[in-house]
Amino acid sequence: MSKMVRPALLLVAHGSRDDRFVVTAEQIRDAVAGELPGVAVELSYLDLNAPLVGDALATLGPRTDDVVVVPLLLGDGYHSRFDLPAILSAATRQRISLRTSQTPVVGDTSLVPALLSRLAEAGLRSNDGVLMCAVGSSDAGSDAQARRRAAELSERLKVPVEVVFATKPGEHDKELRSAVSRLEDARVDRIVLSPYFLSAGLLTERVIGKVLAYRPDSLVAAPIGEHRALIDAVTSNYRTALRGVSHSSGTSSQPGRDSLLHSF
Questions:
Q1: Which domains, ranges and CATH numbers included, belong to the chain?
Q2: What is the pTM of this model?
């Protein structure tokens, strides 16, 4: 089999025990592939689902030695800065012809346009308040990035926006209840939950259930899914990597080395 000329694109999602996540990830892959004719676009996972990143790279081996790796992650935390570079480094040690370029996470690009669309679809009104639900991270920078997106969302909507982290609701849901209380203090008519997630899943359902218990009249917007803003973020990261100005992965961050795909 002859090698492909154009580098492949490997999407890396976190993985989930919820089947809906895989369905959404595959829809995202298909939408990206539709925007990049002639490029092999594959999907892989860091955990819980197949194929794992290393297995997907091995599958691409007969077709290309050059792979742009785009993390389908909203926060730039441990997974993108440590786990994924380590996996890519191990893969290149196993196959010395393999050249990878890891781009920034898709969440480095503002996906607020997707949140705006989903909120409009849910029926957001000008006197509502928004509770943006993000996953939460042990990395403070990742959580801070989510808060910046919430501030951006509030600026665009001109309504109050509070943030709650699904993995950190606080003891007896203290953080979640405080966020709801702040919106109530702002005298909003309704609370609209905005999931800052790629897909519906167990974490979002847990938060939704609690919010509806506190405020039964709340609305729930859909997650980001295969929204155009996300697809554009992925394809932009891919094209930037081809120009040799993307962030380097652990396999290409050694001192004195340019991006592995600079010549494409």
A1: 8-107+226-242 (3.40.50.1400), 111-220 (3.40.50.1400)
A2: 0.89
